[in-house]
Write a structure and sequence with these properties.
Layout: H1 20-33, H2 46-53, H3 57-69, E1 73-76, E2 80-83, H4 104-111, H5 114-117, E3 126-127, H6 140-158, H7 168-179, E4 188-193, H8 195-206, E5 213-218, H9 222-230, E6 234-241, E7 244-245, H10 247-256, E8 261-264, H11 278-290, E9 295-298, H12 314-317, E10 324-329, E11 341-346, H13 347-361, H14 366-377, H15 380-406, E12 410-413, E13 419-424, H16 430-439, E14 442-443, E15 445-446, E16 459-463, H17 469-488
Parallel strand pairs: 3-14, 5-6, 5-8, 8-9, 9-10
Antiparallel strand pairs: 1-2, 4-11, 6-7, 10-11, 12-13, 13-16, 15-16
GO molecular function, one term: pyridoxal phosphate binding
Family: In the C-terminal section; belongs to the class-I pyridoxal-phosphate-dependent aminotransferase family.
Organism: Lysinibacillus sphaericus CBAM5
């Protein structure tokens, strides 16, 4: 039966001691009252229902006539019978306490969710909280061309299921891309992920927690800290120097206890913006190799170096060795909405991570991967990057100059990228400063969320990428004025 509701009539059962049309009328009325048939829903025709229930058509006609007389259904000439407006039977409800049914990992994720805790942005505010790229720079027209090109070539393929490992043309492109950065790709392979965060999560879900400890820079990327905590890892942070992690502290720490791995961000470190020097990168590789501790390298914003040439990533120092796992993404420079990242690592490790990826999310969107590949392959990325570097460099220099001019008693860190890290005098609370700036229409990220040990109360991060030049200067001036007035008070 194809008309509305016929399947619901299959459980109609007749008894011998009542007229059949009355039984049918009561049955239909009961279904309407209980909400099984909805207001204005079309009922089966008298011919269809009589055939379905093996009763005479007159029986159905009489039942429908009674229902119409009671105002339960109504007839539309030439169209049939429909359910009228009735008050449905209210069933009893229960209220579950879902908080008591959540596991500890979910409760922890809720507790450390920065988005949920953020001071709410309001229209007209100057917000330094984001380090995402500026939408106005997005190369939409060439992205459209890449989309149409790839769809015309293999639209039937990219709209179907893909492979857990990723879209092969994109994998091959990225392998060559990393080779151009000085990486020996022999015995290495790539797994495509839904951005950096999924890549790190898959890795953490796959490696054995022998010591249960991770070593990282302090402060460090908050998304990584969240995942480390959700995976139950004990986090040991090492202080930062102007050229990267404090190697003296690292050596002493490694001599004292074992670690499952280290997590490092050598380029445009989040949140400090520090670029680890080439000499220190080599020293890091040598030291961790001596202790046979793997390094997870976050290739954060490598493309946004404004001065001199690129520094080789840590994984380039490993040669044909396999002790470094590189997690990359174009999210902070290209199109974050695509959610395409990658893990470059030992072939055997990638094979195992591929199985974990397949078990969890099947695969990253093939369409997203294919269009990104076409965009990269057609040379649009290099042109876009040249323009983006020029715009962001100007904003970076403006933000740095304004911070030095207007914000008192501070140390400014940041060698490029899309943000600065401000360190105020000891005893000044950045969260209290934030509350006062909020009242004046300016918000930023307090720095303590990036620290592994609760420190950094006197620090904050300024993300300037999505702000106009005028708002950058005006916002920083308001922060500085607020701080000066607070000190006078």
């Amino acid at each position: 039966m194809k008309q509305g509701g016929q399947g619901l009539f299959n459980d109609f059962k007749m008894v011998d001691d009542r007229p059949v049309y009355v039984q049918l009328k009561d049955y239909v009325q009961d279904m309407i009252v209980k909400g099984h048939l909805l207001e204005h829903q079309k009922l089966p025709s008298t011919r269809e229902l009589s055939k379905l229930l093996a009763v005479s058509r007159n029986t159905v006609l009489n039942a429908y006539a009674e229902l119409e007389q009671d105002g339960i259904i109504y007839a539309v000439k030439g169209k049939g019978n429909f359910v009228g407006k009735v008050t449905t039977l209210k069933t009893s409800t229960i209220e579950l306490d879902w908080k008591n049914r959540l596991n500890t990992a979910t409760l922890l994720a809720d507790e450390i969710d920065l988005v949920r805790q953020d001071i709410k942005w309001q229209k007209g505010m100057i917000s330094f909280t984001s380090i995402a790229p500026e939408e106005k720079l997005f190369d939409v027209e060439n992205f459209k061309r890449a989309f149409l090109t790839r769809m015309s070539l293999e639209g039937d393929i990219v709209l179907n299921y893909g492979y857990a490992k990723g879209y092969k043309p994109l994998i091959d492109y990225l392998l060559h891309y990393m080779e151009m950065k000085g990486v020996d790709i022999s015995n290495k392979d790539i797994l495509i992920t839904n951005g950096f965060t999924e890549g790190l999560d898959i890795l953490l879900s796959s490696i054995a927690k022998k010591s249960g400890r991770v070593l990282c820079e302090n402060p460090t990327h908050h998304a990584a800290l969240k995942l480390f905590r959700l995976h139950g890892l004990d986090i040991h942070g090492i202080d930062m120097r102007d050229d990267g992690i404090d190697m003296g502290q690292v050596e002493k720490t490694l001599a004292k206890m074992d670690y499952d791995f280290a997590y490092l961000i050598p380029s445009y470190h989040n949140p400090t913006g520090i670029v680890t020097s080439s000499e220190k990168r080599n020293a890091i590789f040598q030291l961790f190799s001596n202790f046979e501790i793997p390094i997870v390298e976050d290739g954060f914003n490598e493309e946004l170096r404004y001065s001199s040439s690129h520094l080789a990533p840590l994984i380039a120092f490993s040669g044909s060795g396999n002790n470094i796992v590189y997690i990359g993404s174009f999210s902070k420079i290209l199109f974050p909405g695509l959610r395409v990242g990658w893990i470059l690592a030992d072939k055997a490790l990638i094979a195992s991570l591929e199985s974990m990826k397949r078990a969890r999310t099947i695969h990253t969107s093939t369409l997203d991967q294919a269009v990104l590949y076409q965009y990269l392959q057609d040379g649009y990325f290099e042109k876009y990057l040249k323009k983006a570097r020029s715009v962001y460099k100007k904003k970076y220099e403006l933000a740095r100059q304004a911070s030095m001019q207007y914000i008192p008693f501070c140390k400014i860190r940041g060698d490029g990228g899309l943000h600065l890290f401000i360190e105020l005098e000891e005893g000044i609370d950045a969260r209290e400063l934030l509350e006062k700036c909020y009242d004046k229409g300016v918000v930023f990220y307090p720095g303590d969320v990036f620290y592994t040990n609760g420190l950094g109360r006197n620090t904050f991060r300024l993300g300037f990428s999505r702000l106009s030049e005028e708002d950058i200067v005006r916002g920083i001036q308001i922060i500085g004025d607020t701080l000066r007035n607070d000190r006078r008070g």
